Amino acid sequence: MKRYWKILLLSIITLVVIGSFYIQASLAAKNTVQLKLEKRSGNEEELKGLSIHGDYGSGNLTQSFVHEADGETRILSGLSLIEEFTTSYTVPVIDKLIEEHRSFMRGKDLSPNYFFENESLVVYAGVKRDYKYNSIDFSFDIDVLDKKSNEVKSIPLDLSDTETYGWYDVIDVGVVDGQLKLITRSSLVIGGEEVNVYTFDIEKEKLLGTEKLISTITKDNSWTELSIISNSSSIEQEKYILFTTEILKDIEKDGNYVQEATGHEVQVYNIETNQLKKIDVRDELFNSIYWSTIVDSKLYISTPMEKGIEVIQYDIETDKWGEKSIIDLPKYKNGYESIYTTLMNGKIYASYLTDDGHELYIGDLRTGKSLYEGKIKVSNNPNKTEALYIHYIE
Amino acid sequence: MNRYMKLVNFEFNRFIKLYFVLIAFTIVVQLSGVVVKSKSYLNGANEAIKESMLTKSEYVIQYGPMSFIDISMSPWIMGPIALCAITLVIYVFFIWYRDWVGKNTFSYRLFMLPTARLNIYLAKATTILLFVLGLIALQLVLLPIENQIFKWMVEDVYRIDLSVLEIANQYYLNLLFPKNILEFILFYGAGMTAVTMVFTAILFERSYRIKGIFYGIVYCAVSILIFLAPLLLQASLLENYFYPMELLFLEIAACVIVLAGAIWIGNLLIKNKVRV
Question: Which residue among A32, A69, A221, B88 has its CA within the 20 to 30 Å range from the CA of A326?
């Protein structure tokens, strides 16, 4: 044994040093920044399934995080390799689909835009991109899973017109009376964009027809910006999809070119009746339309104000503007990225900055009542200085 | 087992002098690097403060504070690490070829030992692993010491304090220190697989000489292809068929296949084909 002393010593030191380093590392990993919601009023049930995305800065380190409102905070930056593999980057509805239909979900693009689910069907409609030397061949990749029989139907369709179209994407999938509807957005090679509806007969696995909903054009110094507002993390049937177009122009001002909006339009598409309708929106309200949602044929638009949020209603069926309601947030402190609002599932969610930290507000859009109010607290903060930005709630 | 231990000890002692030189070099250069870097920051700060009449905190606002990252990213720290790494990579080859060079062919005596020749192969691999892990441990011992020296030399106002863990997680250093023990085993396991692959390729050359170089290259290409097969399939034919976790397990399996293949082929070559 004596003559092995050097090798044994080195082995033991190595083992102890590396071992203690990793014990320390695993202890530190449990000690990361945690967000906590402290209820002030309302019902904690409202937090179920809610996740808050943001950045947290302490010292000179900024970390992205996701906080599950009824669970833990996960730090997204600097994940280890195994964590990269096990962290889900998609929304919970898709995770649930993977759990229930593991083999159907294989090899699919996991954006919720491409999925539809009702009690009898799961539909996937993605766009396959086949990269060629100087063009891309597009085709639809449509799979329909019958939940009862577990049968999968595939409907192939080439989108061969690569001369005209530079890009294709599916923005929503819906099923109306046994017909599959795909709403696609595509860009034209010569500039501009189009929104098309493709209707398929699921039973016969056949394309029934296509219809152009919207097309925009680009001229020398002016172009049209198209935005589509729909609940992108939902895979259920949506009745309405909102489109906004804004004409922008490059205008010379004091030698600099600046963008100026010269006109805009808001349209709403009813998937069930196939109707596209215009909505008259006042100029000052137009930018707020990105913070809007549709509940039971009513459009709700929210605008942040000095000490709260204003919510305006519009009835799509009767084309009438409804009453305004105001959500009072007396402690709200105006400033850079100090408020984030999102409207979904008939509710309004707002996280906002006050003099002592962030608060979360959840309200019912239909009744205008507050459902939950609470403080967002940070624990395990190693440094004194901190900055919290919340930029997404789902 | 006893024979194997003796062989490991033998291989270990053959490199130990150079190994101590590497260790000493690393300690000296890294520690002086901490001193030099801290001094030069302080000198810069003092000069600027004298010339433009700044206060210390104004200087920090204008020119930024110093953190250990400034030291650990510099050649003073990275240089010795790179030198150790290169030396060990070269030694992966030299650990075999030194048996063939010299006046009396040592390999002849080595292969005549009354033990399975595979033990020679495994002993050499073990030695490399021990040397690598030893240097990793050295760096882990040095980092807290260097961090402490940095704290002694530079005043609070100028400094952003980082823990050893945070330093080890920064880029470049994080290549040496994976985030958790499981990953450490996976990373260095994959590394050892690569070492055995090179060993077997060397044995191809030692068995068939000129022709063996060609065999060795083909063998390495096949091994790498097997290792990458799950990833290549995922990206091409199967179009994301596997879920991430499945892919990780397939990769581990592929790595084990390559490792087993390397040792098995290495064993055949060293037993039946190797020339002295």
Answer: A69
| Nearest by Cα to A242 from A253, A229, A260 | A229
Residues contacting residue B215 through CB under 8 Å, at least 6 positions apart: B204, B205, B208
Q: How far B148 CA lies from chain A's nearest CA (Å)?
A: 17
- B173 and B184: one domain? no
Best A6, A13, A82, A84 member to test B by mutation, with max B CBs in 10 Å, is A82
DSSP classification of residue A64: E
**B201 and B145 both lie in a single domain:** no
Tell me, what's the pLDDT at B101? 83
Could you give the CA distance from residue B135 to residue A14 in angstroms, rounded to a whole number? Answer: 8
For A84-130, the pLDDT digits (tens) are: 777 766 777 888 888 899 999 988 888 888 999 988 899 999 888 87
Instruction: Please measure the distance between the N-terminal and C-terminal CA atoms of chain A and give it in whole angstroms.
Output: 64
Domain count, chain B: 2
- Strands A51-58 vs A386-393: parallel, antiparallel or unpaired: antiparallel
Q: How far is B241 from chain A (nearest CA, A)?
A: 4
Tokens 């891309």 belong to which residue? A136
| Cα–Cα dist A63/B243, whole Å | 26
Domain boundary among B145, B177, B209: B177
pLDDT digits (tens, 9 = 90+) for A347-386: 888 888 888 778 888 888 888 888 988 888 887 665 544 5
For residues B200 and B139, state if they share a domain: no
Q: What is the ipTM of this complex?
A: 0.91
- Interface contact A330, partner B, CB < 8 A: no
Q: Is A379 on the interface with B (CB under 8 A)?
A: no
Q: Quick check: B31 and B147 in contact, CB under 8 A?
A: no
Instruction: Judge contact between B230 and B254, C-beta under 8 A.
Output: yes
Nearest-angstrom CA–CA distance, A116 and A231: 12
Neighbouring CB atoms inside 10 A of A102's CB total 10
Query: Does A392 contact chain B (CB < 8 Å)?
Result: no
Q: Which of B153, B177, B201 is at the close of a domain?
A: B177
Instruction: Identify whether residues B154 and B21 lie together within a single domain.
Output: yes
Q: Hey, are the CB atoms on A26 and B181 less than 8 Å from each other?
A: yes
Q: Provide, as residue numbers in chain A, all residues whose Cβ is less than 8 Å from the Cβ of B179.
A: 25, 29, 78-81, 83
- Same domain for B71 and B197, yes or no, is no
Residue A117 three-state SS: strand
Instruction: Residue A133: count other Cβ atoms within 10 Å of its Cβ.
Output: 4
Rounded Cα gap, residues A148 and B8, in angstroms: 63
Q: How far apart are CA A277 and CA A269, in angstroms?
A: 6
Q: Does residue B227 contact residue B259 with C-beta atoms inside 8 Å?
A: no
One domain, residues B51 and B168: yes
The residue segments making up the domain with residue B3 are 1-177
Q: Characterize the bridge pairing of strands B159-160 and B66-67.
A: parallel
Identify whether residues B95 and B192 lie together within a single domain. no
B40 and B70 in one domain?
A: yes
